[in-house]
């Protein structure tokens, strides 16, 4: 059986920023793969490096080391010159839907802009395409004549999604695309993303700090902590049988409590200075041993297509049965 070429591959990406006198490793040896039509969720708390990964994929930042391949071709090669073909194939949906649009221009203009830039349509065909895109995200075409401040946050995000779909991309990079919305609207937008995947076979890199959001949407999940991938695998495998203590912490803090079980003692929520050796999560982990503090773990297989970077994957869970 022929191997399917991944749509996007990140191979050992590294990115360091200088903050005052310090060098901060925002991304450390991050690798992940997205196949055509697949939704990959990238989850982690603030400062984990998720948005830096998004900027690297979008070509807004260049990696210090490692490479990004799109359909088997290096991104550095694809961005030579204008990079127009790649930028039309990979589109973004950002966190703040209103700020993402020009307040001086109509909603219709914002949606039409990429079509104009790429000379994909003009005149009556352009107006027809804008109306079609608004309908595709369940907005009335009459909203094209309104300004961003005249529509709701949910409508604005739908319009941004319509704009992102204008050039028929193969990949959407969604960076906290629902976190600024009301909970009820979040559910509607998440379902819209699933509809887009099913109807258009659009792949997505869906980035969020909220594990339940990623669990609802993603086919596979990548968990980041302190710039590195600590666990990855099929979404249900990661959520039902997490093997890294940080993943378990995320799940325990976001899912309804199980009355039959209680936490042993959760890792500290304090963000202490990251260690220079060993596992970066060790200062917050109740399972940490001397080996954890001295040797940096690497991703190792813990199940089918499921891997974790932890020396203590032998420990089944951070919970124990409630004693009667």
UniProtKB/TrEMBL annotation:
Chain ranges of the ABC transporter domain: 8-251
Disordered as annotated region, ranges: 250-273
GO biological process terms, alphabetically, are: peptide transport; transmembrane transport
Pfam families the record matches: ABC_tran (PF00005), oligo_HPY (PF08352)
Alphabetical UniProt keywords: ATP-binding, Nucleotide-binding, Transport
A single GO molecular function term of this UniProt record: ATP binding
Spell out the protein name for this chain: ABC transporter ATP-binding protein
From which organism does this entry originate?
Answer: Acrocarpospora pleiomorpha
